[in-house]
Amino acid sequence: MSRYGYAASAPYYDLVYRGMGKDYRDEATCLRGFFEWKLQCASRRLLDIGCGTGAHAQHFSELGFQVEGLDISPEMLAVARRRSPAVTFHEGDLSDIKLAGKWGVITSEFGAIAHLLTYEELCQFCTWCWDHLETGGVLAYEPWIRPPQYHLGWSAKRRVCLPELEVTREGFHAREGDVAHLDQFFTIVRPGRVVRFHEQLLMALYTTGQYENAMRAAGFAVDSCYNRPTLRGTIYGKKL
Ligand SMILES: C[S@@+](CC[C@H](N)C(=O)[O-])C[C@H]1O[C@@H](n2cnc3c(N)ncnc32)[C@H](O)[C@@H]1O
To answer: Fold for domain 10-146+205-238?
Structure first.
């Protein structure tokens, strides 16, 4: 089993979320609106941290940003590189980012930030972003599930069917302190072949206050939007 999950499931990630109706183009377009209008970002250099298969990165690039992505999973990055050859993708750990440079926007979508397992790491991440944003730049992250909404036990089964491929994913949620243990069981069916595998994700259960305060502690002016444009809302910090 991979340390960070997503290794075996990477080729099916987009299929599962497309099947659930997640619209990356719409999310990127709405986020662009915030970056350009509400928060007036410094430049159009954008870094997407925990970029996964690069769907947001692709749309940000099509919307005119100079995009770079960072992720820890070589398998997710392989999908991202095939999708967007024009975007630069870096392999790296968000708890210890080695990139040099400054960006106008740093973003982290769909709960990738919750892979930082302690509040101290979340604060260090925000400080790194402060140091690597231009003045007037924006940090935007989408939180993961907050403790009151986290339900232990089995989650909904997702099944996506194409003519020659069926992907089923079922999750089991457990908890140790403030860290969620999410076991995901996959069944991949092709004509004459069935493959089953299991991945485990560890994700922190931060409160809304912790997500916002980590940004404030780094120096950001914080603003939040909890029903748009992404599933769990977006927290914005501006480097004034
Ligand atoms: C839920 S996915 C979100 C991917 C993408 N942002 C999206 O919107 O689809 C979380 C991503 O975080 C990445 N990840 C997990 N731990 C990480 C770490 N320590 N450093 C960098 N990326 C990490 C995973 O490989 C995965 O691609």
So the answer is: Rossmann fold (3.40.50)
Ligand 1 and 94: CB distance under 6 A: yes
Superfamily of domain 149-204: CAC2371-like domains (2.20.130.10)
Taking the model in full, what pTM does it have? 0.96
pLDDT at 2: 47
- The per-residue DSSP string of 13-46 comes to HHHHHHHTT--HHHHHHHHHHIIIIIS--S-SEE
List, by residue range, all CATH 2.20.130.10 domains of the chain: 149-204
Are 46 and 68 within 8 A, CB to CB? yes
Nearest CA to ligand 1 atom 9: 52
Each residue's pLDDT tens digit, 204-227: 999 999 999 999 999 999 988 876
- Ligand 1 atom showing the smallest separation from residue 108 Cα: 6
Beta strands in 143-178 (DSSP E): 153-154, 158-162, 165-176
For 141-177, how does the pLDDT look when each residue is reduced to its tens digit (9 = 90+)? Answer: 999 999 989 999 988 899 999 999 999 999 999 999 9
- Ligand 1 atom closest to the Cα of residue 52 is 27
3-state secondary structure of 55: helix
What are 19-28's contacts with CB under 8 Å, separation 24+? 19/158, 19/159, 19/160, 19/167, 20/158, 22/231, 24/55, 24/56, 24/58, 24/59, 25/59, 26/229, 27/56, 27/59, 27/109, 27/229, 27/230, 28/56, 28/59, 28/60, 28/63
